[in-house]
TrEMBL record:
Source taxon at top rank: Eukaryota
Domain spans labelled Response regulatory: 1-104
Listed InterPro entries: CheY-like_superfamily, Sig_transdc_resp-reg_receiver
Keywords: Phosphoprotein, Two-component regulatory system
A biological process from GO: phosphorelay signal transduction system
Sequence positions bearing 4-aspartylphosphate: 34
Protein name: Nik-1-like protein
Keyword Phosphoprotein: yes
PANTHER family on file: HYBRID SIGNAL TRANSDUCTION HISTIDINE KINASE J
Pfam families, per database record: Response_reg (PF00072)
PROSITE patterns: RESPONSE_REGULATORY
Organism name: Fusarium globosum
Length: 106
């Protein structure tokens, strides 16, 4: 994200990601969500973020899922949770930059 000159926040796990989003949702134009994280995985974190947005009547933030698991079932689970874009690791900077530009986030 530094190379894209973007402001960013990090979280050690899915639970922390949800907490940071809920504390300051207006600070986020997109979320890069790793699917495999300790305490709470990215699928559950995405579901909780979407539930929070729904409850608060907020526009959904763009969530990009990052995973080393490129299986069809992993992709299906990610989209079912509310993920907008599914990316397999390693993600190239050019690919990420292109996606962010397409969605007017960069």
């Amino acid at each position: 994200m530094k190379k894209l000159k973007s402001k960013y926040t990090t979280a050690a796990d899915g639970l922390e990601a949800v907490e940071r989003f809920q504390e300051n949702p207006d600070e986020f134009s997109c979320i890069l969500m790793d699917i495999s994280m300790p305490r709470m995985d990215g699928i559950e974190a995405t579901k909780q973020i979407r539930a929070f947005e729904n409850k608060e009547g907020r526009e959904p933030v763009v969530i990009l899922a990052l995973t080393g698991l490129a299986s069809a079932s992993a992709q299906q689970d990610a989209y079912a949770s509310g993920v907008d874009v599914f990316l397999s690791k390693p993600v190239k900077l050019k690919e990420l930059s292109s996606i962010l530009r397409e969605r007017s986030l960069a």
